[in-house]
Amino acid sequence: MNSMQSAENQSTRKNRTHTGLARLFFHEFLRSCAAPFISVAILAFIAFLYSGLVIVTGTSLPSHVGADTALDGAVALMLSGLGVTYTFSGLLFGIPALLFTLVDIAIWVWMDRLFIRTHSSRQRLSLPLRVTCVCVSLAVWIAGWFLITDSASSSLSWNSIDVLLHSFLLGIIAIAIQYASTLQSHIRQWAQELGGEHLVRGLVIAVHLVQLTVIVLLSLSTVALIWLFCSRFSSVMNIVYALGMSDGLQSVAAVLLVILSIAWLPNLQIAVLGWMSGGVFTIGQAGSVSLTSVTTHALPLFPIFGIIPQPLHSPALRTLLMILPGLCAGIVALIVLMRHVSIHDSIAATAVESLYSFISASIAVALVLWIWMMVSIGSLGTGKLVTVGLSFSQSFAPLLRPILLGYVIAGVLIVGSQAIIRYVRGHKQAKFKKSAVVEKRERTEKHEQATN
In angstroms, rounded to a whole number, what is the distance separating the alpha carbons of residues 400 and 398? Predict the structure, then answer.
């Protein structure tokens, strides 16, 4: 009787478990469909609203024409966010709008976290079911992009295969961010098995170092970009007036130029960083820009070209700009190491962890700068503006070299200062022990003399 009752209880628990997993899979399946679809819809609404506001405030187009123009501008902005090359009113646009690309990824990640119940509930699903949900989510994301971009008029033309491929790559990046905690736990476990606790601590330091380095470089480039914009404000306004902003824009392409000038902000940031480090920014066959020389030949009326600076004739100012990225990276490395390294740790442990962290951080920073630099390059306009962006061969090494040098100097300072402090403390302790021994010996001798 007891065996039958226990069997029934076990069967009931098993059925409840299967039912709970089925409900969980159903919830995850719905989330996999809803999150990417709503994300693409939000992106389309933001792009349409932004394009419409620019048209309403800056043009005198009729309402029915303005609505079609806003739709085309929104689709063009979304294509630029994907990095898809397209033609609009006879102009070629192939430079990815990285600001909108980041917005694309951020919205999907935010929607995924908004829909999901808890991270542990996702882990209860088996690996095949989780892979199925990921594939469904990626398919809905790609389908949403394809349907939205297919609604544009004939004034826009692009390759649909590029939309499918680029949306797939963007979806893979977003999914990797969504599962970042899972990937992090696997990497930590792998590092623990491979190199022990020192490698794990080194990777933790490297993650914090890379994050702070990227934030500092972004802040530095933003300040430099604001400085360039303020110093070249009159040139930018001359281009804006030439486009007809003062009397109302009459060209749809001019509207898109104004929109993309803001959406290209991350592209401008890496360009400014490369320029500060002594790199070369090329504008196809129309010219090149560096710290020492600026060569331009009849540039088209793009607002972003208005901030092109004049050559810096002051060697001191050029040197200051070139060492700023490395100086900031060194200060960041010092701060991170001081937070994670204790004076009580051995010098060998500190040296090993610093070596692990600097090698990992150097590879990660080099990879981030390489990807950032490569995706910011593209085609713009027609004819001589074939490639616009930093020259990789002339800009990557000058930008990366001072950052790595700053890391090395910071590591040497930390390990050296720790060795000096430990030496001074050891010397003081030895001196104190020696004086204590001498004092004890003197007391003993005095006591023996008094006894005798």
Answer: 6
